[in-house]
Amino acid sequence: MSAHFDAMWVEEQPDGSFRRSIVRRSVDDLPAGDLLIEVHYSSLNYKDALSASGNRGVTRSYPHTPGIDAAGVVLESAVEAFRPGDEVIVIGYDLGVNTPGGFGGCIRVPAAWAVKRPAGLTLRDSMALGTAGFTAAQCVDALLNHDVHSGEVLVTGATGGVGSIAVALASKLGLTVVAATGKPNEADYLHMLGAASVLDRSQVVDASGKPLLRERWAGVIDTVGGAILVTAIKATRYGGAVAACGMVASPALELTVFPFILRGVKLLGVDSVNVPIAERHRIWTLLADDWRLDALEQIARDVTLAELSGEIDAILHGQQRGRVVVAHDTAKS
Description:
- This protein is 26% helix and 27% strand.
- By secondary structure, the protein is α/β, with parallel strands linked by helices.
- It folds into two domains: 4-117 and 295-327, Alpha-Beta Complex (Quinone Oxidoreductase, Chain A, domain 1); 131-269, Rossmann fold (3-Layer(aba) Sandwich), CATH 3.40.50.
- The strands form three sheets. Strands 3, 4, 5, 6, 7, 14 and 15 form a seven-stranded mixed β-sheet that branches.
- The protein is globular and about 60 Å long.
- The two termini are 18 Å apart.
């Protein structure tokens, strides 16, 4: 292993714009931490695209290397729980936010951020899932824990990373999935993942202002927020549950308490950033074993670090489907 590695470098320019480039960095430039990890794979999430575009609501200080996901091999360890050669997954916490992330060939992080790779997943598989897949699994788990076992389950933003894996996973576990998307030409893709039916995004946005709508959904996995989430809550049937994990449309929630009080609807907020380590192990173990997805190859595709900037622009413009895995030069399956 060289003491130097390639990394995406996001720098603010004199005119206030931000420039992305690939630079050569030294492991000596990385922050202090228990583990030095050679990154073999990362993945692209919407949060990464914001960080890579200079969004200070995500990343405070630049220049910076984004990448909230990383999977690779421990090179150095200051703790007994990990040894050089261990294959590990790191997602969430501060990785790629204000700590140099997985879009670099090496990271240095606290040991408490790392999970050993479950035997049922390769490093590449773990990043085909990444934060998006982990979040989707949390959403499905939340619905199952709130007695959503039958009836229609709506998945919004269904062609995105979280949405694609939520559709595939919920259908694998026997739920009847209705996929909502703004990309009607992707209906075949969603059916392939297991969706029983596909709705255009316009069909799940109600502008009537009514406090309640006709009961339909036994459960909802919402990756979008805003008016779509509001409409979904109003149309959730008595005792149903809504798992909310996204706010790309809007963080506002403009509705009455009627769905919660008159229908007993549960709104379940899903966070993947600060999940306790024991829960991380549980979710990753499910994804590696009982919940392992055969459709990962159809959901995810690989790009190099040099190709990543174009993918960042695509995800910001809503032009991406499924998952994008970033394969470093060190990648091994």
